[in-house]
Amino acid sequence: MANVNQLRFTKTHEWLALQGAEGTVGITQHAQEEISDVVFVELPKIGRQVRAGQEVAVVESVKAAFSIYAPVAGTVVKVNEQLSQSPALLNTSPYDDGWIFVLQLSQPQDAAALMTHAQYEAWLVEESDRGGVHA
Amino acid sequence: MTSTVATPALRRSPIHATHQALRAKFSTFGGWEMPLYYASIMKEHQAVRTACGLFDVSHLAQLEVAGAAAERFLQQVMTQDFGRLMDGQAAYTPMCNEQGGILDEMIIYRLGPQQYRLVVNAGNADRDLAWLRDHRLTGTEIQDLRETTGILAIQGPKALGLVEGLAGTTLGALGYYHCQLGQVCGRPAVIARTGYTGEDGFELMLAGQDLLPVWDAAMAAGRAVGILPAGLGARDTLRLEAGMPLYGHDIDETTTPFEVGIGRTVAFQKPEFIGRAALWRQSQEGLRRRLIGFSMEEPGVPRQGYALQARGQTVGQVTSGTYSPTLTRNIGLGYVTAEASAPGTTLSVLIHERPTRATVVTLPFYKHHGKR
Q1: Contacts of A62 in chain B (CB under 8 A)
Q2: Contact A105, A72 (CB under 8 A)
Q3: Tens digits of per-residue pLDDT, B315-346?
Q4: Closest in B40, B303, B330 to A37, CB measured
Q5: How near does any CA of chain A get to the CA of B300, in Å?
Q6: Do B303 and A65 touch (CB under 8 A)?
Q7: A131, B300: Cβ pair inside 8 Å?
Q8: Is the pLDDT confidence value at B2 over 90?
Q9: How far is residue B287's CA from residue B299's CA, in Å, rounded to a whole number?
């Protein structure tokens, strides 16, 4: 399993694993629990340029559709084709086999502005205290 | 949430704490905070199709209409024919306004010659009560039972044996859309063979304080047959597979029984009822739009509000949609123009602005093959 302490997190429940100038993006354990049984993932096109916070993919569960946002600005260089056949990987392996896409970061230093795992955990507590639950 | 507008407090089931202990995820529905799912919508759905699911549907409002004029009153405000209903029989009926629009739809159980139990949609209950009281006939009492009652639904192929055990009586002879007064776990109950899942099953109308012992007994006795507590999420995917419309999504005040495809519940043999003239006119003139079922031919999940197109023209919109766990494909309900409503018609659903191919199919999507 990916070491969550080396990941960076967004308030919209994506994680980013940075390797050089490339960042792999997926959803957190908390998000997969909220989204529940994933039945379809709409993947972005390779080569697409996105701004931080822009919708990149859509995760459909039996419950509803959930937008997946770019944690940082960049270009989509790879998508997880395995999800077309096995969308439930998002539930069973959110930090590993359930990764969604890889971004070539426009500015690799942008990742530093995202939350650490400890900060994300604290944010989750804060969010649930406010009654907000949306992934 | 930083809204300063006061929102009314959500209603909760008498066994809310039990759902919390089961770690349910909750959702707001019709002014109620009810379990959406416990562990997995998918697993709960499959439990109902193959074994048994236990639903707390206490958000459904129970009303009682009784008195010497009760039958005459229902004949006046409902579209169904209550003259033919026997004691222990139930009927599904719309309640329409003068324009033939559906104010609500419900199941009405005849408990006795002058006593009817109405089970209505949570979100419509206040409006229903006001409408019923406005049109009340002398010799009719209307009672709101919401504060003191609740409903548990036990649905699935294993429901019969399980409910027989809890009720200590045989129920095989109780027909679909029939009910009887009896006891469940020694508590008084209306035992009804009805449901909203497209599967055989029962709905148990109980006093609020009796929900907990019956819930616990059902969970304990059901363990051997694989019972799962099931939430509104599975209830929605189950009813959709069964092609059953949901008020607020597929039905509202602007839709008529004929457009929804439940014209069989409009009894024109009755000389007078609210909405009769408008509905008669529509039955003669024909429909401009219809609620249809469609099945997706390309990847994508249809959701409420998405546009439906035929040959590049917008012909309507999706009112309900989901992934169907039983059929393992994506399905939906929606309104389209009459010309685009025939089974076999190719449609496009605009999913995130992308036209995605679908085909109109005959409802229901799923029909169970057991004995009813």
Answers
A1: 41-42, 45, 233, 237, 322-323, 325
A2: yes
A3: 999 999 999 999 999 999 999 999 999 999 99
A4: B40
A5: 7
A6: yes
A7: no
A8: no
A9: 31
Structure tokens at B248: 């607020």
pLDDT tens readout for residues A50-100: 999 999 999 999 988 999 999 999 999 999 999 999 999 999 999 999 999
pLDDT at A134: 46
CB contact under 8 A, A62 and B299: no
Nearest CA in chain B to A132: B1
Residue recorded with tokens 């959500």: B10
Sequence-distant (≥ 6) Cβ neighbours of residue B227 within 8 angstroms: B47, B51, B52, B53, B54, B158, B162, B218, B219
Sequence-separated (6 or more) residues with CB below 8 Å from residue B280: B268
* CA-to-CA dists, residue B296 to B13, B116, B330, B336, B369, angstroms: 36, 41, 5, 16, 24
CA dist., res. B364 & res. B361, Å (int): 9
**Amino acid in the structure at residue B285:** E
- Closest-approach residue (CA) in chain A for B325: A62
Nearest alpha carbon to residue B149 among B64, B80, B271: B64
> Is residue B190 very low, low, confident or very high in pLDDT (cuts 50, 70, 90)?
very high
pLDDT at B371 over 50: no
CA nearest neighbour of B255 among B226, B289, B230: B289
Name the 3-class secondary structure at B138.
coil
- pTM value is 0.92
Per CB-CB distance under 8 Å, the chain A contacts of B352 are: 42, 58
Q: Look at the block and give the residue holding tokens 């990941």.
A: A7
Range list of H helices, B92-158: 125-134
- A65 to chain B, any CB pair closer than 8 A? The answer is yes
CATH architecture assignment, domain A8-128: Beta Barrel (2.40)
- Chain A residues closer than 8 Å to B299 by CB: 40, 42, 84
Interface ipTM > 0.85: no
Of the candidates B82, B163, B154, B157, the residue with the CA atom closest to the CA atom of residue B115: B82
> Residues in chain B whose beta carbon is closer than 8 A to a beta carbon of chain A?
1, 25, 36-37, 40-42, 45, 233, 237, 299-301, 303, 322-323, 325, 330, 352
Closest-CA distance, B326 to chain A, in angstroms, reads 12
B233, B330, B352 ranked by CB distance to A63: nearest: B233
Are the C-beta atoms of A61 and A35 separated by less than 8 Å?
yes
Q: Which two tokens stand for residue A22?
A: 């490339």
| Domains of chain B, first to last | 11-59+148-241 (3.30.1360.120), 288-364 (2.40.30.110)
| CA distance, residue B154 to nearest chain A CA (Å) | 22
